[in-house]
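Running co-folding for phenylalanine.
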Amino acid sequence: MEKETKTGNREQFGSKLGFILAAAGSAVGLGNIWKFPYLAGSNGGGAFVLVYLLCVVVIGFSLMLMEMALGRNTQLSTMGAYRKLDKRFTFIGVIGVVAAFLIVGYYPVVGGWSVAYFFKTLIGELSTSNPETLGGIFGALVSGTWAPIFWTVVYMALNVIIVIGGIQKGIEKASKVMMPALFIVLLILAVRSVTLPGAGEGLKFLFAPDWSKLSGQVMLAAMGQAFFSLSLGMGCIITYASYLGKKENLVSNSLNIPAIDTLVAILSGVVIIPAAVSFGFEVTQGPGLVFVTVPAIFATMGPVIGRIFGLMFFLLVALAALTSSISLLEVVVAFFIDEIGFNRKKAVATSSTIGIIMCIAASLSMGAWSNITLFGMNIFDFFDYVASYICLPLGGMFVSIFVGWFWGKKNAYDEVTNEGTIKFALFDVWFFLCKWVIPIGILFVFLSGVGII
Ligand code: PHE
């Protein structure tokens, strides 16, 4: 993925697995492990989870296929792809780049927290299941000034090393081991969590929908989270698929990745929510939920085993986050290379400097700068809100309008079925979703989520 050209003569993924790992690596990240459980917790549980699943099935799979088709067809990253196909739609690329900037402006803060928690586990600071103590440790970290900035910089430096050094190949190889390892650790934790006393209540909260909790805001939260978690609506998948060979089966790829991603999200929910309920943590507490609940689970596993698992967990979370944030950074970097004409080094330096400045603001907004608010939100929440609930859904809506109404059925068919050589029995259903159901559905949820209808 090092080579950038505008002519379409680009390097391709060495193997089908390379692409799946990179795309799944982009999808599976903090969105699944950190964000999904706390959003489910603060948005009423089951109703949120069901709307989330509905969004993945109806919008997620289809949009994944659309973005893959656009990327592979044009062999260009997001802005260039639209410019080549239909200049009037270049603005979709702009929305994506804005979203990428915003997410790069806070995601590394949380990445930094996970690195910090790895070290806190190492020195034994977290060996307790006492809610007050754990809450206090998390609160002190996020509201501090220098410590969270330090960890953010460490995390961002790791990103820069990977993106600038072009060692994505190494990362892809590492993911082959890491992703299954993450999955196994989550499975073990899930078993531990659901066997804690009182865990049944948590499972009920997570899976038995209480429809009275459903509102426009909850639907928008679930839909925005589906976009965020699947890395959709901002051109990440377009960019990755631009490196994909003409023989690859896009249909099966677009099914596998959302399936893996959703499995990891649900599994994380099953780890966090029942344990939180069992230990008496507030499930509505927001971004700290994973960071206080998981150490408590480890504490019940005994000092040695608990600590070993704790180290594995936070290491894997940090690595899963890395494979996502390098894909985010890549969108910003590609923008500077393709649109502004920077070379890769300069593009990475500029993107990460802007990212760090935004992250410092986002981090301070939970401490020293908490009195600064934008539309009633602190800076961290504001970046997240604009990216996840405005840019990504609207980006996705325009992608489907573009594919359904402008790129058209014939082009879509040829690309998705490799010129008719791959069977895709549900093509008509998919195209109908792209043309009608998805744009209207997104618009409806968006308008009701922001309170217009
Ligand atoms: N999907 C990633 C996660 O769940 C975050 C991400 C969003 C990455 C958008 C790329 C694009 O952590």
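Result summary
Residues 1-8 have pLDDT under 50 and may be disordered.
The pocket of phenylalanine is lined by residues 26-27, 29-32, 103, 228-229, 231, 234, 236, 324, 327-328 (CB under 6 Å).
Job closed.
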